[in-house]
Amino acid sequence: MLINCVAYENGAKLADIPVADISEYIVRPGCFVWVALADATPEELNEMREEFGLHELAVEDAHHGHQRPKVEEYGPSLFVVMHLLEPEPDRPGHFSAGEVDVFVGPNYVLSVRNRSKQGFLGVRDRCEHEPDLLRHGSGFVLYALMDAVVDRYFPIIDALEVELERIEHQIFTKKAARDNIEQLYHLKQRVMLLKHAVSPLLEGASKLHGGRVPQICMGSQEYFRDVVDHLVRINGLIEGMRDTIGTAIQVNLSMVTIEDNEITKRLASWAGIFAICTAFVGVWGMNFEHMPELKWRYGYPAALLLIVSVCSYVYYRFRKAGWL
User: Fold this and answer.
1) Strands 31-38 and 108-114, sheet pairing
2) Which residues of 145-164 are buried (b: 16+ CB within 10 A; e: fewer)?
């Protein structure tokens, strides 16, 4: 589904144009065209390939989707893949993953958004309200798109940190260790999903402000450096969360072991108490002929009293030692 197609010249918006007029505008000096697609069909991608002369491999990647975040050069043009992470309103701390593929040339920008409900109209408005920066052309538009995608990662990581803090607060709650471990593993999976979106993009974005900068990005290096700084910050937060989750999992596993040991000690204590009873009863249950207490009137009550006394003392010792 085609969202819109806009032509810009010298930092100012010219007009919304139909696809059929793209070729007319991209040949004008100082003019570039910005086309946005959402869930594009193969036919629409092929049409854009013919209009802008896109590389076949890049178009194939955009068609298949589910690509790793990356920045690739194809001659004078760039192909950028970024993951879109969007919170799920009905599941706090959870998010869905989409993708945006951006084709950037000297006189065009084509963004293809897949599996995402959030558009980039705010990015377009921002660019149009900054004509001095928009004069840098398609390179500044690429920066604005990257900056918008990266800024959407911050609420995601904030929600993950809140959930991690909640789990940490209940680590030492009795009989909650196993449930905590399950929650921590689910949280770790989401953190890794964010890691897979940030780490490769950090590697790719680093090519746009240092060393041999692509011609399209000339004049916008400091803006791409700002994006890289944000990605470095997010990546550091992710690594910190991974370490904390690993520590929390180890603590919870230790709590499970401690709880199992407590149960084992209780069972061993009761087994020891009943072993005393068994020992006394076993002795008195032997069929010897000459046992003095057999003829004693108070032998039976005395035997019971002795068993109860010894067992009570052993129970007291176990209780004092914290085994019962």
Assistant:
1) parallel
2) bbbbbbebbeebbebbbebb
CA Rg value for the chain: 35
Can you tell me whether residue 324 is helix, strand or coil? coil
Q: What is the pLDDT along the chain (324 residues), one digit of tens a residue?
A: 556 788 888 888 888 888 888 888 888 888 989 999 888 888 889 889 988 989 999 999 888 878 899 999 998 899 999 999 988 877 777 888 899 999 999 999 999 988 888 888 888 888 888 888 888 888 899 999 999 999 999 999 998 999 999 888 888 777 777 788 888 999 999 999 999 999 999 999 998 887 788 888 888 888 999 999 999 999 999 999 999 999 888 888 888 787 777 778 788 888 888 887 888 777 766 666 666 666 667 777 777 788 888 888 888 887 887 777
